[in-house]
Amino acid sequence: EVQLVESGGGLVKPGGSLRLSCAASGFTFSTYSMNWVRQAPGKGLEWVSSISSGSNYIYYADSVKGRFTISRDNAKNSLYVQMNSLRAEDTAVYYCARDEVYYYGSKAWGQGTLVTVSS
Amino acid sequence: AIQLTQSPSSLSASVGDRVTITCRASQGISSALAWYQQKPGKAPKLLIYDASSLESGVPSRFSGSGSGTDFTLTISSLQPEDFATYYCQQFNNYPRTFGGGTKVEIK
Q1: In 3D, which of B21, B34, B22, B38 has the Cα closest to residue B83?
Q2: B41: which DSSP letter?
Q3: Residue A58: which residues within 8 A CB-CB, separation 6 or more?
Q4: How far is B16 from chain A (nearest CA, A)?
């Protein structure tokens, strides 16, 4: 069974840092590009960042560029995002999601982890 | 960045109704579009990929159409479990973008 499990969320003060993790199982993690997608309370989905299977290609939304760093460890079947200089507007549920290889869509999603940025 | 405009942003419908949601891209994206369903407190669920292909296990009352800039998600006969929020997402280029969502409510 394909599974993505996020962890690392919590309450952090503005200007603080947090590292989220996404543990993958049930598929060959090293084959797939991966993404972080977030959803602020009561709002829509926002794509945050993507990383290719071999970490050769990395992309960020303008809203997080220069503050967030996506990475992965294929040996540990894990995806990460290091979030620095956090702002109140970064408060959201953060999901990891898998890109599919042969079609355009993300079938596998984690359950999400909540990040709250507040003093 | 490619913008996706979904309409309507919300709608009220009855069980059995035919429902159509549109997603318009600010520039052509071929068929690089997916549709998701999201229920409160849950992760999005993939319904349609490549603009018109039904994801395995998704009821056949869901269908997608379109290419280029104009796309449609249709629910042929709305069921109680279909009341949710629906999003489109483009995969043509980065930054990846989502539509603003369409909330389908009970009439």
Answers
A1: B38
A2: T
A3: A49, A50, A51, A52, A70
A4: 27
Number of Cβ atoms within 10 Å of the Cβ of B61: 15
To the nearest whole angstrom, how far is the Cα of B39 from the nearest Cα of chain A?
A: 12
Inspect the interface and report whether the beta carbons of B38 and A107 lie closer than 8 Å: no
| Beta-sheet strand order (sheet of B4-7) | B4-7, B19-25, B70-75, B62-67
* CB–CB contact B55 A107 (8 Å): yes
- The minimum CA-CA distance between A61 and chain B, rounded to whole Å, is 6
Q: How many CB pairs under 8 A join A and B?
A: 65
Q: Cβ–Cβ of A44/B100 closer than 8 Å?
A: yes
* β-pairing verdict for B45-49 and B53-54: antiparallel
User: Whose CA is closest to B43, among A65, A31, A4, A12?
Assistant: A4
Which pLDDT tens digits describe chain B residue by residue (107 residues)? 999 999 999 999 999 999 999 999 999 999 999 999 999 999 999 999 999 999 999 999 999 999 999 999 999 999 999 999 999 999 999 999 999 999 999 88
